[in-house]
Design brief:
123 residues; alpha+beta; 6 strands
Length: 123
């Protein structure tokens, strides 16, 4: 999937990628992999958190997203005007003070989703 013509996707710095790797829970069910030039963490094939440029994004229920937004977070819109439901951008400098509770909560909620089946590659 390419970015719409004329749109530049932000690129995460090497520092952001390294910081992200340090704060993602280290457990066998969790995988970290690149996605559209970003880095994301998955459980059972479902993304629960990631970085978009220098911002940290987590997947939460809508009521919890509202609380994060009241604390200074904002909707995750990888394309302006197109909110990605169930995700919110974490407020503040997530590298200075890792929001481990939010990440743990995102993992907990995402773990409840049905596992995604691996897509078969076309020839």
């Amino acid at each position: 999937m390419a970015a719409p013509q004329g749109m530049k996707m932000p690129r995460p710095s090497e520092e952001a990628k390294a910081a992200f790797s340090r704060i993602v829970p280290d457990e066998p069910a969790v995988t970290i992999k690149p996605m559209f030039g970003q880095v994301s963490a998955f459980v059972n094939g479902n993304m629960f958190c990631g970085i978009y440029g220098e911002e940290l994004v987590v997947r939460l229920p809508e009521d919890e997203i509202a609380r994060v937004k009241k604390a200074g977070g904002h909707d995750f819109e990888p394309v302006a005007g197109h909110r990605m439901g169930s995700y919110v951008v974490v407020p503040g400098d997530w590298r200075a003070k890792a929001p481990r509770a939010l990440i743990a909560r995102a993992l907990e909620e995402t773990r409840k989703l049905p596992a995604k089946k691996a897509k078969t590659k076309r020839r």
